[in-house]
Amino acid sequence: MTPVATPFFFYMLSGLMVVGGLFVITRRNPVHSALALIVTLLAQAGLYLMLYAPFVAGVQIILYVGGIMVLFLFVIMLVNLERTEREKPFNKQWLVGLAAALALGAMFVGVYVKGRALLPEQTVSLPEAENTQQVGLMLYGNYMLAFEIASLLLLVAIIGAVVMAKKRI
Amino acid sequence: MVPITTLHYLVVAAALFVLGVIGVLTRRNVVIVLMSIELILNAVNLNLVAFSRMWGLHGQVFAIFVIADAAAEAAVGLGILIAFFRNKETVNIDEVDLLKW
User: Fold this and answer.
1) Is residue A64 part of a domain?
2) Hey, of A56, A98, A156, which one would you mutate to test binding to chain B, going by the most B CBs within 10 A of its CB?
């Protein structure tokens, strides 16, 4: 299926993403930051759909918005942040940090302006109906070792999180 | 109107990456620093999926691996945050200075 009104949806979703990202890094209350991050992630799932990646979009919504962000909100509720909200939200070296980040952005702009001719024009056709099947075949074919290592990584992360968050083992 | 090319997606991802770097470098609250790291990982994911439009499905598979890594990173990071909060009663990253000489 070809997407309809592509420029409108692209600019709407990317605007939502950038505004959400700005809210994430400027809000004083971490709960507001988390809600802005949820908006950003949902808009990004929309962009994935426009790029013919429905499986990644579903994983994004289920795992990021439904899993990781719930974890963030739980931790925000567990730690008592009332003192932090009255203090200043930015650290002492914020000016240097901002300058460094903007230099990085300028570098991105330079790379994209100089290298835009290197981007190939052609696109491959990615049929959406078989997307999940193809991704699954790749995960269990080409990338099987990486898949198993990822499952081991998740196991280690679960054990590590429990060990660190528990009062006494 | 200009048709949307891959470069458009790359520019959005770069903007998101820079926002995440600004958050990591300037915020004091560890929770928001972790959220900024999520922003950075999402910018990379958007790049990968945008490139998979040109070179086949490998980028999408790699994006799924990055999402799994992000889940592991968030779990461990928030575990460290809870352990730290239990010891020092604060979540400010510039008060983590025990190793500072």
Assistant:
1) yes
2) A56
